[in-house]
Amino acid sequence: MSDTHSQLAFVRTEMLAQKEPPVAEKGVVKWVRSNLFSSWSNSILTVVALYLIVQLIMNAGPWFANGIWSTNSLAECREILQGASGGCFSVLSERWNQLLFGIAYPDTQYWRPTLAFVLMLVAASPVLFSKLPRGMLIFTGLYPFLAYWLIWGGTMMTSIIALLGFVAAYLAFRKAERAGFSIGLGAGIIAAVVVWKVLGMFAGELSILPLEEVPSRNMGGFMLNMMLGTICISLSLPIGIALALGRQSHMPIIKGISVVFIEFIRGVPLITLLFVANVVLGYFFPPETNMDLILRVIIMITMFASAYIAEVIRGGLAALPKGQYEAADSLGLDYTQAMRFIILPQALKISIPGIVNVAVGLFKDTTLVSVISMFDLVGMIRGPILASTEWNGVYWELYGFAALLFFITCYGISQYSQWLERQLRTDHR
Amino acid sequence: MKKSVFLGALTVAGLTAGAAAAATLDDVKARGKLNCGVTTGLVGFAAPDANGEWQGFDVAVCRAVAAAVLGDPAAVEFVPTTGKTRFTALASGEIDLLARNTTWTFSRDTDLKFDFIGVNYYDGQGFMVPKSLGVTSAKELDGATVCIQTGTTTELNLADFFRINNISYEPVPIETNAEAQPLYLEGACDVYTTDASGLAATRAAFENPGDHVILPEIISKEPLGPLVRHGDNDWGDITMWVLNALIAAEEYGITSANIEEMSAGTNNPEINRILGTEGELGAMIGLDNAWGKRAIAAGGNYGEIFAKNIGEETPVGLARGLNAQWKDGGLLYAPPFR
Questions:
Q1: Residue B293 lies in a domain
Q2: ABC transmembrane type-1 domain: which residues (chain A) (predicted)?
Q3: pTM of the predicted model as reported, rounded to 2 decimal places
Q4: What structural domains does chain A harbor?
């Protein structure tokens, strides 16, 4: 073998060092070639797109760069700009508080809704992220009462009594639950009503940590959108579940009520319901007991959202194989147990994307209240700010700001739901 | 059975509404605040400023009534209303007074069961077009696209005008004045039509107001005034005479500057009666005698309110025109205080 070896002119004894790939096959050039200029048609599209992007930057760039932040009116902005392109962002620096909190929220109290917002993030986190300590859920339970007190003000007693009522209801429910779910529920409701009635009598005399009271009609701006969105979505989830189960029920009356409710609400545009809340309900209450407009709107939006959520959850229920229901039955579980332990956990998991979809849509729909003359973020812009003599004519800056706020919130929600779907995926794809 | 329950509920609702309407003055006094309906925002007429304080020509009427009835021009709860929700808000008792540049028409006064308490601004519907269009008369607008606010009398006037002149148009419906502005500037419509005061205010906010002309035709009468529910004449009288007091104050030269001096007593008995130093006018409408003085002190007389909010010195820049005193050739004419 050594002979053959010696006869060969050249034998490589060690590996060649790796060569750099050709310039056209690596790095930026390859990326550009394969992604931007892979064919004639793609090249043309790339060039056109680049041209558009450059144009956009050339036009919008100076508008942002020349932006003016410190004048007192649009006329002053125009004077400074002298016809040059530039945004008049002064409207944001002068009216930011109205855009966020509405026209009438007392400005010394802005810390209250802000704190409520921060606490909302804390309260929502154990619900959203299952890895956080479960003890935090106690705070989540306390949060609605705390937030009510922070935002509306007044004495803390109202919130405490409401909370005690719920605690009593829960305890009564646990005691009576053995006799059956519905008996437990009844006992809970009775306990809550008793506690509210009894404690309500003493409420006027005690005043704990009173804050300046802010009536509902003084709520506005982005705060109002956040409030409506959060309250209505959290209320509509349990109602939606109940409706979805009701629709599947074998009891004709419950089924009938659920079907009629869902189909009626889904068949009516939200804006119509809002007009009903604003206009028609007013006739049915005597003037002195005029129900809060916000409360009326919350009821209507909640009804609307729960009908949609009910349909999403019904989809989840229908997607479960029949075997799951039968398995629950064969274990000897009664209806409530089967639902609580077997059906709903699975059905709700399937429904998450749909629920988030409804939530994002609903959050954006809260701007519709501007049509019934409530000053939410869009209502503030359409009404008072554009009608002030100083800012009449500022459009891009204001609507851009509103779009930015909504985009941040909705993008956050949608990112979360995508993350959650990845977390819950158990099928090892 | 169900029907009768429903009708019964309606009757109860109607009765309670009626009972409440019969004593608006008592309600307002008990509440300590006047619920006053205003627009969600119209330049010069009503809009909150940076501090959330409502300012404007219509707002001044609310403040004057509050000052007369409750003694405090700040004791007003402003309820913003849109063109569509304003009448139900008043009819349902949510507001005591609607001061929202609302045109006084036959059907609103009778069929909708309201009482207009007077006119605080005489307006008329006009047209604004870009100068580049080269139009000099509204009759040349055949085939034009017209931006028009829905739910207003302007919508109906427009249809009437084009029908009378036998020309056609294409309406572009919009919700508020603020929305019309960019649409018109972008060229989504050739013509913008609304009350002449609104046109002037809108044009004043343009970057180049000189590029747009307001056509000479005024196609309608738009007497804008505050209104109250029909059926409570006592309350209607109070609001009506507060408005008249503001107008009369200008006629007799009572201003916010000299009101203290004049209320010490003058040699003009009419002024003395308005300011309550003579006669018992207050008792006749269920108020004290200084009601007129307080109403005028709240924001000045009619002329001062006009000049401060929409007059020629302001960005809105409206001339007095029809809204001058009758002595100066206008239509403002307050009945005698006697």
A1: yes
A2: 222-417
A3: 0.82
A4: 70-75+87-105+218-428 (1.10.3720.10)
